[in-house]
Amino acid sequence: MLAAPSYSSKLGAYNDNSYARAQSDSSVGIDYMFVSCSAYYPSGSFIGSDNNSNPSGTKVLALSATVEAPDLFDFQVGSADSQHVYRTAGYNEVRHFLIWPE
């Protein structure tokens, strides 16, 4: 009997908080995987968002989405949120929602 897939969803800010990155990983190839990342300045104003999904008919083990803080005078991400969706044949869809910092 095959083991059920396991999923790992991560969200954090890196390089002195100059960008936020959401990462989705699976223990098996997934029919459909989606990841989105939205980032905000410490003031709460919106920086931007990015999303990624695998092309139809392909299986993936990992995807990521990255948002950089482009303003030279306010280059730090203050908070971020992400959504992770995993869908594969024979298993219920799994969704993870993360907020950084926790």
Plain-language structure description:
The chain has 102 residues and is mainly β. The protein has one domain (7-100): Sandwich (Immunoglobulin-like). It has no helices and 7 strands. It has strands spanning 7-14, 19-30, 32-40, 46-53, 60-68, 79-87, 94-100. The strands form 2 sheets. A 4-stranded antiparallel beta sheet has the order 4-3-6-7, with no helix packed on it. Strands 1-2-5 form a 3-stranded antiparallel beta sheet, with no helix packed on it. The protein is elongated. The relative contact order is 0.30.
Give a short synopsis of this structure.
This protein has 102 residues and is mostly beta strands.
Write down the Rg.
15 Å
Instruction: Name the assembly state.
Output: single chain
* Tally of strands: 7
Helical residue percent band: under 10%
Q: Which fold name is given in CATH as the topology?
A: Immunoglobulin-like
Distance between the termini: 37 Å
| β-strand amount | over 45%
> If you average the pLDDT, what whole number results?
93
Give a quick account of the main beta sheet: strands, pairing sense, barrel closure: 4 strands, antiparallel
Instruction: Order the strands across the largest sheet as they lie in space.
Output: 4-3-6-7
The number of helices is 0
SSE pattern: EEEEEEE
What's the overall geometry? elongated
Low-confidence stretches: none
